[in-house]
Amino acid sequence: MSKVFITGGAGFIGSHVIPMLLERGDEVVLFDNMFRGDRDKVAEWVATGKVTFIDQDVRYGGAVHAAMKGCDSVIHLAAVSINKSQADPFESVDINIVGENNVFAAAADHGIKRVVFASSASVYGDPETLPMKEDGPVSPLTPYCIAKLAGEHLLDYYARRSGNTWIGLRFFNVYGPGQKPTAYYTSVINHFVKRLRAGEPPVIDGSGEQSMDFVHVHDIARSVVMSLDADPAKANVAINIGTGIDTTVAELARTLIAAVGVNVEPQFNPREVLVSRRAADITRAREVLGWEPTIDVQTGMKELVHTEIV
């Protein structure tokens, strides 16, 4: 049993991580400003007696430092989303970079042995080749992406200074139960499903060759928890968390058609679109964490369609 400090734990990914921590007997200090959090769910966790809730913001370093006292490990999930970072770069830098530094500096001061950081595959930009490897070129294109890469470098700085260890998980296209309908990676899913439930075919811009590496939030949460226990000798690295499969928008549409169970064909809107592709090389995840995905896209999307109100 250990005491885990988790920022942003009341959000989408955190709501899947915390039950796993409780299941294995950990105590949790949940630090969240509840901008997107679920207060009813937090109340349920607090009622177990194993979760302490701190309603605060990572931008306030003193609050972070005080709340982390007595913890053994840190999971840093709190961030401003990629689309919001473009609308308000100042807020993105404030929360994503200043917030990262506050958390990582406090971890160094408190002698925290392991920091797990929610990084992002967006640090790669548009890749020239697939699959995308951790030691390949990076080209972050937005304040959010820049902040995620900066976070990895800050972790390396504090590790050299304090001797703690870190793992930066470069999440690919996360989806699953509990995700907001407006979330960056799920907007296309929700758009397609709404049309299909109305008996209308999904409309795809261009040829539908643009792709994502969709990874289920359950597998994302597993990677976070497994990172807490990874061998220190293999730590201090960024690790891709994806499936290794690039699912095109056209393939996604057909998967959702099958899941909803309607007899339609996708329609293609002939216009120029930027064709970007995503697929993770997950060799390092297997070697360092012993992790690999357990939920394929077809199973995950079918579950999402039948259990979630989209």
From TrEMBL:
In terms of Gene3D superfamilies, this protein maps to: NAD(P)-binding Rossmann-like Domain (3.40.50.720), UDP-galactose 4-epimerase, domain 1 (3.90.25.10)
List the Pfam families hit by this protein, alphabetically.
Epimerase (PF01370)
Lineage top rank: taxon: Bacteria
Kindly give the SUPFAM superfamilies that the UniProt entry links to this protein. Answer: NAD(P)-binding Rossmann-fold domains
**What sections of the protein cross the membrane?**
none
Please state every residue range assigned to the domain named NAD-dependent epimerase/dehydratase: 4-242
Fetch the InterPro entries from UniProt. Answer: Epimerase_deHydtase, Lipid_A_modif_metabolic_enz, NAD(P)-bd_dom_sf
Q: What is this protein called?
A: UDP-glucose 4-epimerase
